[in-house]
Amino acid sequence: MSRRAIKTINWSALAETLPETEKVAFAAFKAKSDQHLRRMNANPETPPKIDWAYYKKNVLVSGLVDKFQKEYESFKVPYPADKYTSDIEAQEKEMLVQIEEFIKSSNQRISDANKEMERIKSLLPFSEMTMEDFRDAYPELAINPDNPTIWPHTPEVQPENDKGVPGQH
């Protein structure tokens, strides 16, 4: 991460999006990042310039300053390669697709729920319904006079589903 990238992080906006349960972990992460930034800023971005002419005049061992100058100028600290940005961007694209699908399915569920609410609002109130009105509105719940059931009208207590009482023959 470059100095520029660390300075562009908007910590307060990031903190606003976190749930309360993650605030402690976020504070620890931010403290670690700030410590890294302080250590990085303590060192210059480029190595200091050396006055090689001064050392060539004052060092008595011939060729030593030239050797050091050559090694110093050829020394390059490699910047770590960015292996993760492309992975993160790919994951972001995947998540955006999933978010769009979720929004689409959620809007469909909302639409279905609103239609069901309108249907229920259009029904007679239960206090004004007759048994026939209830059967017409809720055929799956209404008692069928052609196929009577025994109270409590659940499938497991009906005679056709009775397996017999254990121990009686």
Short summary of the structure?
The model has no long low-confidence stretch (mean pLDDT 85). The protein has helices spanning 3-7, 11-16, 23-41, 52-58, 64-74, 85-122, 131-137.
**Structural class by SSE content:** mainly alpha
Q: Compute the CA-based radius of gyration.
A: 38 Å
Total number of helices: 7
Strand elements, count: 0
pLDDT averaged residue by residue = 85
Largest sheet: none
Oligomer status: single chain
In one word, what is the shape?
Answer: rod-shaped
Unreliable stretches covering 5 or more consecutive residues:
none
Q: Which range best describes the helical content: under 10%, 10-25%, 25-40%, 40-55%, 55-70% or over 70%?
A: 55-70%
Encode the helix/strand succession as letters: HHHHHHH
Notable characteristics:
169 residues; mainly alpha; 55% helix
How do the strands and helices of this protein lay out in sequence?
Layout: H1 3-7, H2 11-16, H3 23-41, H4 52-58, H5 64-74, H6 85-122, H7 131-137
